[in-house]
Design goal:
By secondary structure, the chain is an alpha/beta fold. It is built from nine helices and twelve strands. Strand 4 (53-54) and strand 5 (57-58) form a beta hairpin. The longest helix has 15 residues, at 167-181. The mean pLDDT is 93.
Amino acid sequence: MTVRRAGRTILGPLDWTVRDGERWVVLGPNGGGKTTLLSVASMNLWSTTGTVELLGERYGRTDARELRRRVGFAGSATEAAMRSDLTPATLIMTARHGAFEPWWHVYDDADRDRARQLGERMGLADHLDQEFGTLSAGERRRTSIARALMPDPDVLILDEPMASLDLAARERLLADLGSLAREPRLRAIILVSHHLEEIPPGFGQALVLCEGRALATGPSPSVLRDDVLSEAFGMPLQVEGDDGRWTARMRHDP
């Protein structure tokens, strides 16, 4: 699969398979192709060449609108579309129909109950009736993730979920995403990040992109290595893993 724009290949050639039960992290520098890959994976961008299949359905041979309902997506772009005067309870609920406003569809008590349960699961119990615009960055991120879960998706895509969070908010969300990784209902989770420190426990597969190509893909211990990450980010790095958490820092050779 490749994606080309203005005569330039911005992603690929790439051959990538996500299997049932896998939790993937996609890493790489800015401009490496991560956003383009997410757009293809969420059926919001067509590849230029090759074939793309999602949940057993091939792009171009299925109703993309229906298939997108089976993919939950959370990220800053989603948060930017949320009205600041609506509450998390409402914003989570409206994802039932893929909307951001509560006026266009009919919701029942089951929808309202599910929205509040998801908000509570994501640590928003005390904030569900606040205006979205008054929430902290961490609380807005949790609202976005709860929204992504509202339609009961098969696949969850998280676009830099730790971005702009302080240390405490990041660590709390990492723990919650580690718990979410153990949820058997989700057939796959794909998380994009720039930083190894932002990989939750339980994400056992990794793909490293650089200049639109995969430098390495497979089980995290075989991919998150000094040589791979040093090539991706263009500097000598020392990578360490401990109990499902990862760190990287610049290596100073004697």
